[in-house]
Design brief:
Mean pLDDT: 95
Number of helices: 14
Strand order of the largest sheet: 22-23-1-24
CATH topology of the largest domain: UDP-n-acetylglucosamine1-carboxyvinyl-transferase, Chain
CATH class of the largest domain: Alpha Beta
Distance between the termini: 9 Å
Structural class: alpha/beta
Low-confidence stretches: none
Number of strands: 24
Shape: elongated
Bound molecules: ligand EPZ
CATH architecture of the largest domain: Alpha-beta prism
Radius of gyration: 21 Å
Number of domains: 2
Strand content: 25-35%
Largest sheet: 4 strands, mixed
Helix content: 25-40%
Length: about 425
């Protein structure tokens, strides 16, 4: 348990380079199991979820080492296909190992994942994907159990563009015989990244970034060296932080197209955005305006992961904002904590109506999930006085030293 202590009222000023992407590197670490060769990843962020993934790879028999931002995986000695809750309980995305383990060993037993309390985290689409590739896939107590003599390519139609189910389908289909057509696929940049990685491994894959991806099964033999893409949500976090606190911040290393929905919203609030090749400069002085109606959608719509972060930026804005959370059913837990700081938020099912207040005041609040915890820290930057965010470890799952990044920009933040 740690406590983030923030003293509000100080503007941010300076520039930073955004970390490597958590939601890109996790499926790459899983996919490394497929290859009968070595994998080297660069620009890997120092996150608890990455450490949890390395522990999972070791449990499966791989060699997995980290040396600063470089990770080395040798999956040749891998021989295991069962992951207990002691390992998968630390993060939701552990289900991403399902496709890789099944693709390599034709058998998998994965304890149901834990992770953020964003509402029920079903895995029915993951089971549907594995069955479509010829596997038996069932729940056995708290475990997902899959087995297949041989995975066979098939037709998969996802009723919802689930990011994780798309990633599991792509990885498992690489280990299947023949052609797989995946319709209704997620289009997130992390999907495009995974396809590029698999292609270097030898995969015959096309259509990533669209809602139809076609994969022909192959014998992955090639070693892969890969540099992880920038984290678009970490970039969005720093841009929203500047609206919360006011100031002038340049975020380097981001891909502007990946954060377009967020920068458009921040511009609508009156922030000045200069978007250049691989960086964005944001300036915000005085009271921002409300961002209006924000509807979270699959990419390229407004990302659900940035919903808490933009809400933090809207708490002191002039006017009323409406946040409609269409991806997760329980992703407003941060609202009650923000209300302790004086925020005016009315919850109505999937909607949160935020009426901007003149000034938030510091309070003792609790982080209940990764992005909600980050949002509370951001809200503290603009609040009067001191805010203490109690955190069982959520924020470190997704952010590489968020306190260091913010204090380098002039924020008064420390961790106890
Ligand atoms: C990924 O989670 C991300 N995590 C999430 O980021 C992100 O919020 C989410 O995609 C949506 O963009 C990683 O990439 C590690 P989904 P994932 O499957 O794959 C429902 C963060 O903060 N669903 O696209 O778990 C599900 O309940 C995290 O970095 C089913 O119904 O998300 C949800 O309502 C949070 N059945 C919706 O789909 C299934 O089998 C989207 O889930 C799977 C999902």
């Amino acid at each position: 348990m740690s406590i983030w202590r923030i003293r509000g009222g100080r503007e941010l000023d300076g520039s930073l380079t955004v970390q490597g992407s958590k939601n890109a590197v996790l499926p790459l670490l899983a996919a490394a199991i497929l290859t009968g060769c070595e994998t080297e990843l660069f620009n890997v962020p120092a996150l608890r979820d990455v450490d949890a993934s390395l522990a999972i790879l070791r449990r499966l028999g791989c060699r997995a080492e980290r040396d600063s931002d470089r990770v080395y995986v040798d999956a040749r000695p891998a021989d295991g296909f069962a992951l207990g809750r002691d390992l998968t309980g630390q993060m939701r995305s552990s289900v991403i190992f399902l496709g890789a383990v099944l693709g390599r060993f034709h058998e998998a037993r994965i304890a149901l994942p834990g992770g953020c309390e964003l509402g029920p985290r079903p895995v029915d689409l993951h089971l549907q994907v594995m069955r479509a590739l010829g596997a038996e896939a069932e729940m056995d107590g708290g475990d997902i159990v899959c087995r297949a003599d041989r995975l066979k390519g098939g037709y998969i139609l996802l009723p919802f563009p689930s990011v994780g189910a798309t990633e599991n389908a792509m990885i498992a289909a690489c280990g299947a015989e023949g052609r797989t057509v995946l319709d209704g696929a997620a289009r997130e940049p992390e999907i495009v990244e995974l396809a590029g990685f698999l292609r270097v491994m030898g995969a015959d894959i096309a259509g990533e970034g669209t809602s139809q991806i076609i994969i022909n099964g192959f014998e992955p033999k090639k070693c892969v060296r890969w540099s992880v893409m920038p984290d678009r949500i970490a970039a969005a976090t720093m841009l929203c932080a500047c609206v919360c606190a006011g100031g002038d911040v340049e975020v380097r290393g981001l891909v502007p197209g990946h954060v377009r929905a967020v920068t458009d919203s921040l511009s609508s609030m009156g922030a000045e955005l200069d978007i250049l090749d691989r960086r964005a400069r944001i300036r915000c002085h005085g009271r921002p305006q409300s961002p209006g109606v924000i509807r979270t959608e699959p990419y390229p719509g407004f990302p659900t992961d940035a919903q808490p972060l933009l809400m933090a930026a809207a708490l002191q804005a002039g006017g009323t904002a409406v946040f409609e959370e269409n991806i997760f059913s329980g992703r407003f837990r941060h609202a009650a904590q923000m209300a302790r700081m004086g925020a005016d938020i009315r919850l109505e099912g999937r909607r949160a109506v935020v009426t901007g207040v003149q000034r938030l005041h510091g309070a003792e609040v609790a982080a209940e999930d990764l992005r909600g915890g980050a949002a509370l820290i951001l809200a503290g930057l603009g609040a009067e006085g001191e805010t203490q965010v109690t955190d069982p470890g959520h924020v470190d799952r997704g952010y590489e030293r968020l306190d260091g990044a913010l204090s380098a920009l002039g924020a008064h933040i420390e961790r106890i």
